[in-house]
Amino acid sequence: ADAARVPALVIGSGYGGSVAALRLAEAGIDVHLVEMGMAWDTPGADGKIFANTTSPDQRSFWLRTRTKQPLSNFLGFPIDKDIPRYTGILDAEEFSGITVYQGRGVGGGSLVNGGMAVTPKRENFGSILPTVNADEMYSTYYPRANAGLGVGLVDPGWFDTAECYQYARVGRKHAQRSGFPFVFVPDVYDWRYMEQEQANTVPRSALAGEILYGNNYGKKSLQKTYLPRIAATGRVTISPLHRVTSVTPASGGGYTVMLEQLTTSGTVSATKSVTADKVFFAAGSVGTSKLLVKLKATGALPNLNGEVGKGWGDNGNVMCGRANHIWDPTGSLQSSIPCGGIDNWAAGGAFAEVAPLPTGIETWASFYLSITKNPNRAQFTWNPATQSVDLNWQTAWKQPSIDMAKSIFDKINAKEGTIYRTDLFGTYKIWGDHLTYHPLGGAVLGKATDNYGRLAGYQGLYAIDGSLIPGNTSVNPFVTITALAERNIEKIIATDF
Ligand code: FDA
């Protein structure tokens, strides 16, 4: 076992972890950034780093022997297939009532997500993070996050004619004819590059259907934003394929952090320990919650408070498709990056992204991912029999989300004389109610932690990721996760170092 001492260790390299590592390093503090996924900097046999959505391979899934695609069926037929077990990029983590999709690798969820970079409406902020000063967030930290992430908006004039956004224009037309506002959604995709993809002057990425298993060109994941700035400080050591299993108080002060080094087939090749003065949990809502719940229950960190593991929500995610008339084709060329949504949050509790179905053929389907005001919250608990962490979410708890999404789509179907698709999530199954892309909570700000993410019970332990947010952000979450991390790390650097 190695013996090493660092001033700060960060667990996980998604949004929260990248913000923490960058700002600590800029303040002159050396950081060890530990990430259980791969670095994603080396091309595979096909010359590309990331696999295409339409042809998943070993790179696509985290330690599974069979794919588990969010859209499990196509034209009614199951499309999952066997793959070699590998430390791939997308984790479909199964709890009893829900599958939680998460990114794995240096860059976390930024590697696999749609890049939709949405700042919540100011009037909704009080219900998202009630203990946080909204004036500071909207004047300082949301702008800082948007700038750091490289957020931009599609050119509305180009959008009106681009072949690859035919599906979104159909979505806009149907929304507006039923009286719903259609709003453009900002994204971290390089919009200039998107226009060049449409013009066929550069290699295609969004227009080649890349999204769920990584994006080879135009998307500004953290690999193109925070991570190069982290590297430029020269103060951050990144350890990919290292998984944190334990954090305990060290005898001489600080914390002993246990790491397992993984091979790409997921076996443990070495066990190491590092001592850190301060430890930042940024393993994502699920990863941080699982670690904290386990460490409290097994006696490694018994003084964590009883709020640890509580307040988990799915951001109200629910998916559905609609079958359009023959005169409303959605296009065989679809950009995998959505750029618009239907806002019925105030009246119906739903914000629906007009999402692509990048199959390469005409499907006459309109596809939507709705974010809804689902009130249900779940809890993570330690299961001594299985030595693992359970989540008590139940599939039936999605019913409020379905009802809220129907506030939009029942009306559109009635107006257009159309019906729901029943062939995307199984046979005769309308609602994609078995999954979330947006896990939030489990170490809620002001409950498991103080108002800046300092974990109750221990000095020098922090949560700084989506686990802080109590279950819903009213829009896609990563801008809020980033902005909150920027706010908290600024305070922590000023007062705790
Ligand atoms: P995040 O999950 O990003 O990072 C945590 C990291 O910690 C991971 O890299 C993980 O491997 C690592 N880790 C976990 N446990 C560990 C351990 N024990 N040891 C070491 N490392 C560990 N959001 C949005 O705003 N707009 C969008 O368009 C989308 N679209 C979207 C699509 C898909 C398919 C997914 C899966 C998700 C999205 N999201 C999204 C959600 C968004 O990606 C998500 O909210 C953020 O990535 C969460 O950021 P965090 O910093 O909390 O953790």
Automatic annotation (TrEMBL):
Protein name: Cholesterol oxidase
Domain (FAD-dependent oxidoreductase 2 FAD-binding): residue spans on this chain: 9-50
Domain Glucose-methanol-choline oxidoreductase C-terminal: 436-485
Gene3D superfamilies according to UniProt: Cholesterol Oxidase, domain 2, FAD/NAD(P)-binding domain
Required cofactor names: FAD
Similarity comment: Belongs to the GMC oxidoreductase family.
Pathway the protein contributes to: Steroid metabolism; cholesterol degradation
Keywords: Cholesterol metabolism, FAD, Flavoprotein, Isomerase, Lipid metabolism, Oxidoreductase, Steroid metabolism, Sterol metabolism
Species whose genome carries this gene: Amycolatopsis nalaikhensis
Keyword presence, Cytoplasm: no
Enzyme Commission no: 1.1.3.6, 5.3.3.1
